[in-house]
């Protein structure tokens, strides 16, 4: 059973119970509008990644600004979005097992559904699920774009898998999935540009080889918040799968700074709101937000608007903040906004978004796909 929300619309921000996941609505809407404008200037379309926000409410706001749909990583995420009214969903990942594939095929009644494959075993299982459901399922071939995670090798191996999909009675070849995940977090623009140049070349070559056997690619998808402009300007990609831009975590903020790009291009919009629960000794304060409230896989959180305060460690339920003797430290009961290092897993720790504007709670949204691991 989900716990009650930590706030209600209309209350002052400083009355929100903690720890809570807070969206600064002005910054959030700025990010949505900025991405829409940047993508509109290219020939590509945005299929925003919902593994970041896990919310049909946010997905529909992205689509109202021109996104053609959403992508997800799990069937459970696809279900939450489809049940929430999102009409076009790509599972940008492989799905195995009859129960999951049956659930995925059932969503075809609610939305346009596509999924990825990188092995003939996937194709066989997907063909069975589609046949049993009486549908034709769109399947993309995922190629290894440099992440060395999932993905068949680009070129002949990808072409052969696409041929197998196209020949399946209940499947439809949907195109290519070509996402270089590691490149998103390479710190300098030069590193990202070099990595994506190789990805684009491999993808372009594969698209051309597919055309030579009579297979067009309705979708050539990939890209993320760290590189989307490179893929958008390649002339190869038709869909961009950026997700984290809606919230801008601390790790992506470091990317912007390393590239000399003003952080205001995309603003920090997601915060873990935390209370100081202890001030046990000079130079130390402890909050009620440990790593159960904020993910630390991409580094410890930053304290928003307080560069004089530094989060130095997190345990399960405690976040330790240290500061110098020249700093007036936070008092017990004071509330702070923490900028997570990695927004996606931080979101998955919470049941509710609390949207704030001008110091007041404006909305409370459920995180519908929270915990959707399968």
Task: Provide structural commentary.
It is a single chain. This protein is of the alpha/beta class and 374 residues long. It folds into 2 domains: 13-21 and 264-366, D-serine dehydratase-like domain (Lyase, Ornithine Decarboxylase, Chain A, domain 1, Beta Barrel), CATH 2.40.37.20; 42-247, Alanine racemase (TIM Barrel), CATH 3.20.20.10. It has 10 helices and 17 strands. The strands form 2 sheets. Strands 1, 10, 11, 12, 13, 14, 15, 16 and 17 form a 9-stranded mixed beta sheet that branches. The protein has an 8-stranded parallel beta barrel with strand order 2-3-4-5-6-7-8-9, surrounded by 5 helices. α4 packs across α5. It is globular, with a radius of gyration of 22 Å. The model has no long low-confidence stretch (mean pLDDT 96).
Keywords summarizing the entry:
10 helices, 24% strand, Lyase, Ornithine Decarboxylase, Chain A, domain 1, TIM Barrel, alpha/beta, 2 domains
CATH architecture of the largest domain: Alpha-Beta Barrel
In CATH, the homologous superfamily of the largest domain goes by the name Alanine racemase
The chain-level structural class is alpha/beta
Q: Give start-end ranges of low-pLDDT stretches.
A: none
- What is the total tally of β strands? 17
Rounded mean pLDDT is: 96
Taken as a percent bin, the fraction of beta residues is 15-25%
Global outline: globular
Biggest sheet: strands, sense, closure?
Answer: 9 strands, mixed
Distance between the termini: 19 Å
Q: What's the helical proportion of residues?
A: 25-40%
How many separate helices? 10
Number of spatially distinct domains: 2
CATH topology of the largest domain: TIM Barrel
* String of helices and strands: EHEHEHEHEHEHEHEHEHEEEEEEHEE
CATH class of the largest domain: Alpha Beta
């Amino acid at each position: 059973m989900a716990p009650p929300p930590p706030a209600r619309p209309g209350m002052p921000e400083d009355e929100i119970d903690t720890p809570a996941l807070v969206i600064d609505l002005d910054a959030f809407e700025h990010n949505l509008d900025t991405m829409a404008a940047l993508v509109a200037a290219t020939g590509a379309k945005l299929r925003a990644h919902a593994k970041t926000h896990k919310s049909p409410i946010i997905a529909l706001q992205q689509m109202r600004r021109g996104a053609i749909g959403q992508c997800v990583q799990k069937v459970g995420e696809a279900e939450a979005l489809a049940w929430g009214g999102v009409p076009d969903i790509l599972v940008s990942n492989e799905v195995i097992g009859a129960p999951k594939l049956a659930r995925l095929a059932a969503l075809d009644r609610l939305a346009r559904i596509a999924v990825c494959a990188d092995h003939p075993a996937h194709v066989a299982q997907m063909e069975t699920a589609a046949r049993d459901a009486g549908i034709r399922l769109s399947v993309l071939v995922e190629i290894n774009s440099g992440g060395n995670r999932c993905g068949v090798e680009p070129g002949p191996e990808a072409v052969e898998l696409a041929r197998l999909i196209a020949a399946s009675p209940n499947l439809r070849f949907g195109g290519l999935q070509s996402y270089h995940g590691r490149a998103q977090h390479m710190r300098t623009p030069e590193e990202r540009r070099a990595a994506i140049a190789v990805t684009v070349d491999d993808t372009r070559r594969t698209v051309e080889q597919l055309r030579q056997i009579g297979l067009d690619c309705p979708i050539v998808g990939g890209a993320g918040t760290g590189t989307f402009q490179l893929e958008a300007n390649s002339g190869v990609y038709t869909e961009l799968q950026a997700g984290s831009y809606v919230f801008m975590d601390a790790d992506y903020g470091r990317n912007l700074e390393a590239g000399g790009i003003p952080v205001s291009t995309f603003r920090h919009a997601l915060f873990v709101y935390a209370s100081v629960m202890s001030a046990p000794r000079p130079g130390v304060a402890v909050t009620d937000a440990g790593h159960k409230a904020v993910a630390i896989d991409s580094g410890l959180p930053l304290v928003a608007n307080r560069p004089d305060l530094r989060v130095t460690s997190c345990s399960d339920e405690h976040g330790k903040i240290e500061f110098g003797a020249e700093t007036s430290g936070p008092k017990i009961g004071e509330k702070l906004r923490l900028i997570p290092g990695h927004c996606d897993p931080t979101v998955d720790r919470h049941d509710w978004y609390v949207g704030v504007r001008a110091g007041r709670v404006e909305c409370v949204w459920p995180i519908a796909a929270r915990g959707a691991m399968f």
